[in-house]
Amino acid sequence: MSVHESGEMYLEAIYVLHEKTGFVRSIDVSEYLGYSKPSVSRAMGILRTGDYITVDTDGSITLTEKGHEIARKIYERHTILTKLLIHIGVTEETAAADACKLEHSISDESFEALKKFAANIL
């Protein structure tokens, strides 16, 4: 099972929330992304079935190794793309919004080239 863009967004949200608080529940993901509780619940079920997350009896969501790798990759893309766009004069708000769109569709080859370029200028 491959993760679609929406799944990547959920995994990234779980990753970011876990880094901030160490404990993530569906309600936290719902609030962070601004999505309805039923939508998040459905997505968590799909991610659990795909072995991207585990959900403990207390509702705590944990990324599996597979989920963590995807989330880390997407978060790195988001961070670097946002910084590059800001560096070339895009406002922070627009840069973050555009990076969110680009991070899901850019090829690995293009991203790696941008990452190398960013390392030299940022």
Description of the molecule:
With 122 residues, the protein is mainly alpha-helical. The chain has 2 domains: 5-69, Orthogonal Bundle (Arc Repressor Mutant, subunit A), CATH 1.10.10; 73-121, Diphtheria Toxin Repressor, domain 2, CATH 1.10.60.10. It is built from 6 helices and 2 strands. The chain has helices spanning 5-21, 26-33, 37-49, 65-87, 92-102, 108-121; strands at residues 53-55, 61-63. Strands 1-2 form a two-stranded antiparallel ribbon. A hairpin with a 5-residue loop joins strand 1 and strand 2. Helix 1 (5-21) packs across helix 4 (65-87) and helix 4 crosses helix 6 (108-121). The longest helix is centred in the middle third of the chain and has 23 residues, at 65-87. The model has no long low-confidence stretch (mean pLDDT 94).
